[in-house]
UniProtKB/TrEMBL annotation:
GO terms for biological process: riboflavin biosynthetic process. InterPro entries: DHFR-like_dom_sf, RibDG_C, Riboflavin_Biosynth_HTPR. This is Dihydrofolate reductase family protein. PANTHER family: 2,5-DIAMINO-6-RIBOSYLAMINO-4(3H)-PYRIMIDINONE 5'-PHOSPHATE REDUCTASE, DIHYDROFOLATE REDUCTASE FAMILY PROTEIN (AFU_ORTHOLOGUE AFUA_8G06820). It comes from Actinomadura rudentiformis. GO terms for molecular function: 5-amino-6-(5-phosphoribosylamino)uracil reductase activity. Residues 2-182 form the Bacterial bifunctional deaminase-reductase C-terminal domain. Residues 187-246 are annotated as: Disordered.
């Protein structure tokens, strides 16, 4: 059964972006890039919100063919471009991008069906609405938190206020020379679904190709990114700010 892995950059005080989506606090180096590359190489699908999907669609297909990018960036871009993308969008107004499917909402049964599918794990980037819905349904199997040595004091928090405590157990911790620590946690209260009987397996209820069956939105070209660049605009193309729109 596939795992759902939420991967996020965060600060010491639990924010994933500034109040206006600022990401200028990030520390990107070769170790960070190695983690990101290994994550997508070892995964089969991306689960994204609509805005994150649009940002990615506007950058990675172009970066995969850009001769001005480094070999490492093109390799990462090609992997992201060819992976299955599952985008959560109530409106259906999403960017046309190869290998994209749509979920109207984060539905427990549909997500469990995804987890029961064949292939590698499912990585969640970006949308706080998607992450919080998965947390509420106890469907997240692992959190990968890249904790930065900075306190923003204000911004967009990964976990909502006013909700019950989210208890986690540590899987591993890896410090980077930049001061970032990659913390991998497993939710204590996750509810892994029981294996479905072999004779009762159903086909996924996800719709087919978005480009053929859903209204499309032209993806806007995004800025370039390189492992040694940490400007706000460049960072957005690699890991867009956490926004809640679907």
């Amino acid at each position: 059964m596939r795992k759902i892995v939420v991967s996020t950059w965060t600060t010491l005080d639990g924010f994933v972006a500034g109040p206006r989506d600022e990401m200028d606090w990030l520390l990107i180096d070769d170790q960070m890039y190695r983690y990101e590359r290994e994550l997508v190489e070892g995964s089969g699908s991306l689960l994204l919100g609509r805005i994150t999907h649009t940002d990615f669609a506007g950058h990675w297909p172009r970066a995969a063919q850009d001769p001005d990018e480094t070999d490492e960036v093109r390799e990462y871009a090609r992997r992201v471009d060819t992976m299955e993308k599952i985008v959560v969008s109530a409106s259906g107004n999403i960017a046309a991008w190869q290998n994209t499917r749509r979920l109207e909402r984060v539905d427990r049964d549909e997500v469990i069906e995804l987890k029961r599918g064949h292939g590698k794990d499912i990585v969640v980037y970006g949308s706080l609405a998607v992450i919080r819905a998965l947390v509420e349904l106890r469907l997240v199997d692992e959190f990968h938190m890249l904790v930065h040595p900075v306190a923003l004091r204000d911004g967009k928090a990964l976990f909502e206020n006013g909700r019950p405590p989210q208890r986690l157990e540590l899987v591993s911790a890896e410090p980077f020379t930049s001061g970032v620590v990659l913390m991998k946690y497993r939710p204590v209260d996750r509810v892994p679904p029981p294996p479905e009987p072999r004779h009762n397996r159903r086909q996924s209820s996800l719709p087919g190709s978005v480009a053929a069956r859903e209204p499309s939105q032209r993806a806007q070209p995004g800025p370039k990114w390189s492992p040694n660049t940490a400007t706000d605009s460049a960072v957005r193309s690699f890991r867009p700010a956490h926004r809640s729109g679907l």
